[in-house]
Design brief:
402 residues, Growth Hormone, Chain: A, 79% helix, globular
Length: 402
């Protein structure tokens, strides 16, 4: 038992590092591109389009990566993920032409597609408390998102744009080599079954859960990308120069919002580990509905706490959704299920961005958007209510005494 516990901690550490690095590495270019405008003397729209293929591959390659993790072993694929995305990022720093950079960014998307389906399935299989483990890993993803621009901008200012690619990439490669060493030594092994196995779900529950979760996942992702896209503009319009004349105050306020909101992942994990995953899932959408309704009518400094509530509601659902997918998916198909889920999420993201473009009005701001987000939250809440129940179960005596 102690050996398994030790492995559980090691898997959690590597998975958390992988999630943090994922959100850093896939976002580096969004800031570095500003320096490339000057260095390569090319327009922003031409340069930012180089990321399109990589962003597309993040979704398209996810089901394949999840299938490979199920067949070859999650830990093995995670080694490939760390080394592959690290080398791809470093190659971007060595690019001399836009075509070379396009290839490097595409490889970032291809290897990056492995993290969410494979990493999540890996954590679930090795976790004794699934909700807490997934929430912990999720927090590190939020940290990566919050600091990605700071890392990219800081390295670019201190050294140059090439170093902003190469140094984070090498960190990922080193972590991949370390994970490979743990595998080779036997400190981490591929487990034949979950550390805490649960009864296989009934076929009727699987079909019902699949339909409900596919609907909820797609719409939730659309809502999240719509909100995250409009957030900087919403703050700018509501607060104006109160955050300062430049962009530093705006950027810091958004970072704080995401960091505070991400703490709710532990709330979602807490309820999951006590058998109330569905309850937490439904209530997260009720909270979103209330927050979007309030956002419709507030202004000034009140937009900051309301934004925290919205992110808080989104992040409660993140670990819950992963736990529900694990509960209603056969263990030998879990990576594929997470891969399909991630592919759906990538497909929904552009719709969220387009919602902002369609519904923003210079005269009324985001009022129409908030109404659509509120109505959509009701639809997702109904889908969440259709998920089969996940009630607490009495632990067997062997689990209590181990």
């Amino acid at each position: 038992m102690s050996q398994r516990l030790d492995q559980s901690r090691l898997v959690l550490i590597f998975a958390a590092a992988g999630h943090c690095l994922f959100h850093i590495l896939v976002a580096l270019y969004l800031t570095i591109v500003l320096a490339l405008e000057i260095a390569w003397d090319r327009p922003y729209d031409e340069l930012i389009s180089l990321w399109t293929l990589g962003a597309l591959l993040l979704g398209l390659a996810a089901p394949f990566a999840g299938w490979l993790g199920d067949r070859w072993g999650a830990a093995n694929v995670m080694v490939v993920y760390f080394i592959g995305i690290g080398l791809a990022t470093a190659l971007c720093g060595l690019a001399e032409t836009p075509h070379q950079l396009l290839g490097g960014l595409a490889l970032i998307g291809f290897f990056g597609a492995a993290y969410h389906p494979v990493g999540t399935a890996w954590v679930v299989r090795n976790a004794r408390a699934r909700g807490k483990a997934i929430a912990t890993v999720g927090i590190f993803g939020g940290v990566g998102t919050a600091f990605a621009a700071l890392i990219a901008g800081g390295l670019t200012d201190l050294i140059d744009w090439r170093a902003a690619f190469i140094l984070p990439g090498l960190v990922s490669v080193l972590i991949g080599l370390l994970l490979a060493a743990f595998l080779r030594s036997g400190a981490i092994v591929e487990l034949p079954e979950d550390v805490r196995p649960e009864p296989e779900p009934e076929r009727g529950d699987v079909r019902r859960a699949l339909l409900a979760l596919v609907t909820a996942t797609f719409l939730t992702t659309m809502l999240y990308y719509a909100f995250s896209t409009m957030l900087p503009k919403w703050f700018e319009e509501a607060l104006g120069t109160r955050l300062g004349d430049g962009f530093l105050g705006l950027g810091l306020s958004i970072t704080v919002v995401y960091l505070l909101g991400s703490t709710s992942q532990f709330v979602g994990g807490y309820f999951c580990d006590r058998g109330y995953a569905k309850v937490a899932y439904v209530w997260s959408f009720i909270l979103k509905l209330a927050a979007f309704a309030i956002a419709y009518s507030v202004g000034g400094w009140l937009v900051l706490p309301v934004a925290v509530i919205v992110v808080f509601a989104f992040d409660i659902a993140a670990p819950v959704e992963n736990v529900l997918i694990a509960r209603f998916t056969p263990s030998h198909r879990r990576g594929l299920a997470y891969g399909i889920r991630n592919g759906l999420a990538i497909a929904a993201a552009p719709l969220g961005v387009e919602l902002v473009a369609w519904l923003y009005n210079p005269a009324s701001g985001f009022d129409n958007l908030f109404l659509v987000l509120a109505v959509s939250s009701v639809i997702v809440m109904l889908a969440a209510m259709a998920v089969p129940s996940d009630r607490p179960r009495r632990r067997p005596a062997s689990a209590l005494t181990s």
